[in-house]
């Protein structure tokens, strides 16, 4: 990619983007903090709730909860027109997606539904309910590690109705009811069996016959520090399926193993920048609470949390996308690597409580020390001390020895507790997400409640 230069105003809004010798100007909307009225020669519009509803030939429709329900593109050539529809469940998770393009092109239809574990998609299904892909994750919410592509023969399905299956076995052709006690007679009519025979077939043959019709192809993910997928590898001889590169704000270029550019992922990979799902039809990323536009570098909707971290309600990661991530589309956070490395700033820790007191450190009490009293019962007597700046910490056991294990150790704070918002955003939330280090044995619930009672490392 060519070098890109960005210019911003004091509202964290772009004023221009320069790529090579070409500069594109961004005009701010005077009626909205963080909104644009135009980008280059393209008009930008917003609906009554502040959602971006138009950018050039691209149009967006939202529901009363500010969720994107439809995207459509108008073009001079009808064959380039497209429409996409999106559905959500009661938890606000996107559970369906349907797209079509061209003039009456049924072959262009794409219907998908999604199954979740918490807020992570673990499976994709086609319009008939057949599984297409499954996904495996690591510890991070957007840390996808494996995509399992399910290859289904024509006509095969995972969700065959048990009612239809039973009707085929228990009813003669044309009958409207079951004959549960009828006996099976081979090659004669009526061809019926009883419930016991059906159960035997299901347990001994049906599952094996169904599974034998399917094949699975595995692809693994390589990601960078931000969690952006940079390579997809497979069991093919050269191992590499696709390569991904991004500009600072997540606009993606995809290439095959030979470096040839691709318009979209040939492998059907939906996960790209910062580990989020990319919709190739619209060029947007689905970012849970909102949709993100990498070309503009902004979210399409206002921050659901309001002005908690910025006066610009549309900015992505405070215009610092190379150092911060935002898993929920609500609040930026530092990257995992930066979080794990923070203790290099915890440069001097007094060796004893007496030395800490002499140096002006202060001892803190419950509940501010709860995360440093986990593990065996003896750890409940640990003491936590904080430096005069509020940034450095040290922890001592009941005998006054420095605690250095991965769970209870003192950690560096990018912001002191007196700066509550930033302290939570850059110190507490990353700890809850990832722990103190890769060796931290606690899980998310331990870190929220401070209740880990296992061994310390």
TrEMBL record:
It comes from the Bacteria. This is Cell wall-associated polypeptide CWBP200. It comes from Sedimentisphaera cyanobacteriorum.
């Amino acid at each position: 990619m060519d070098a890109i230069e960005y210019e911003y105003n004091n509202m964290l809004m772009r004023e221009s983007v320069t790529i090579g010798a070409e500069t594109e100007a961004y005009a701010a909307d005077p009626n909205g903090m963080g909104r644009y009225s135009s980008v280059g020669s393209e008009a930008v519009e917003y609906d009554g709730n502040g959602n971006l509803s138009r950018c050039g030939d691209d149009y967006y429709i939202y529901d009363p909860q500010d969720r994107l329900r439809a995207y459509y593109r108008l073009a001079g050539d009808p064959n380039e027109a497209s429409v996409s529809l999106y559905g959500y469940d009661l938890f606000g998770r996107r559970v369906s997606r349907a797209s079509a393009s061209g003039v009456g092109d049924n072959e262009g239809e794409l219907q998908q539904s999604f199954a979740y574990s918490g807020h992570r998609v673990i499976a994709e299904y086609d319009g008939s309910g057949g599984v297409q892909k499954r996904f495996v994750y690591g510890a991070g919410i957007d840390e996808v590690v494996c995509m399992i592509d399910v290859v289904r023969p024509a006509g095969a399905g995972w969700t065959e109705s048990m009612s239809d299956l039973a009707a085929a076995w228990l009813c003669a052709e044309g009958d409207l009811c079951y004959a549960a006690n009828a006996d099976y007679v081979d090659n004669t009519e009526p061809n019926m069996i009883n419930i016991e025979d059906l159960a035997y077939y299901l347990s001994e043959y049906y599952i094996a016959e169904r599974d034998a019709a399917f094949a699975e192809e595995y692809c693994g993910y390589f990601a960078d520090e931000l969690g952006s997928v940079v390579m997809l590898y497979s069991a093919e001889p050269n191992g590499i399926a696709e390569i991904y590169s991004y500009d600072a704000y997540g606009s993606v270029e995809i290439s095959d193993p030979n470096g040839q550019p691709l318009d979209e992922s040939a492998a059907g990979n939906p996960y790209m920048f910062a580990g989020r799902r990319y919709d190739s039809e619209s060029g947007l990323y689905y970012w849970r609470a909102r949709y993100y536009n990498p070309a503009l570098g902004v979210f399409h909707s206002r921050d659901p949390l309001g002005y908690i971290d910025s006066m610009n309600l549309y900015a992505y990661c405070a215009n610092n996308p190379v150092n911060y991530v935002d898993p929920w589309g609500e609040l930026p956070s530092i990257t995992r690597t930066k979080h794990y490395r923070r203790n290099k700033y915890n440069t001097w820790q007094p060796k004893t409580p007496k030395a800490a007191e002499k140096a002006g450190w202060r001892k803190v009490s419950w509940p501010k020390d709860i995360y440093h009293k986990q593990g065996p019962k003896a750890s409940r007597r640990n003491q936590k001390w904080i430096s005069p700046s509020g940034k450095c910490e040290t922890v001592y056991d009941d005998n006054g020895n420095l605690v250095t294990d991965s769970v209870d150790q003192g950690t560096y704070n990018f912001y002191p507790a007196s700066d509550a918002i930033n302290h939570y955003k850059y110190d507490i939330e990353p700890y809850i997400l990832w722990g103190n280090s890769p060796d931290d044995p606690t899980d998310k619930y331990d870190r929220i409640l401070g209740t880990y009672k296992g061994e310390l490392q």
